[in-house]
Write a structure and sequence with these properties.
mainly beta, five-stranded antiparallel β-sheet, three-stranded antiparallel β-sheet, 1 helix, globular
Length: about 140
């Protein structure tokens, strides 16, 4: 199943059997990842098997939604026309307080104000009926 853009003019993630629970939780404005029922470690991206111990069973657990900027780039020229009006924007790797690293955007601040280790919190952008994008903003 793929998400329909419904007026949203940017590429959207494909919904698969493995990642559907993740996207269902984001629609509820919850950031969740899988926790292995074998070794107890958290993992992302969604998978049918734990990447740490190869156990096949997991549960979805809610994250705090807080973390820090682990790495980032400021996009000043987009290769995709759909993002041309957004430049400059920040694409980052967020390390959650629970240790999960997640690619996202840092919003609600000037791109030049973003820094490594900057504390951030998740916010959710409802872009279609099927997709809600988790993004991050500075903690104030």
């Amino acid at each position: 199943m793929t998400a329909r853009n419904q007026g949203f003019n940017k590429p959207l993630p494909a919904i698969t059997e493995e990642n559907k629970p993740f996207w269902d939780y984001t629609k509820q404005h919850e950031l969740r990842v899988q926790k292995c029922l074998g070794c107890g470690k958290l993992f992302y991206p969604p998978s049918g098997m734990c990447p740490h111990c190869y156990h096949m069973e997991s549960e979805w657990v809610k994250l705090s939604g807080r973390g820090k900027v682990y790495s980032y780039v400021i996009v000043r020229r987009s290769n995709n026309p759909a993002f041309a009006n957004d430049v400059p924007y920040v694409v980052s790797i967020i390390e959650t307080d629970e240790g999960i690293r997640y690619y996202s955007n840092v919003i609600d601040c000037k791109p030049e104000d973003v820094s490594i280790d900057m504390p951030v919190e998740v916010v959710f952008e409802d872009v279609t009926e099927e997709i809600t994008l988790p993004k991050f903003r500075p903690v104030t």
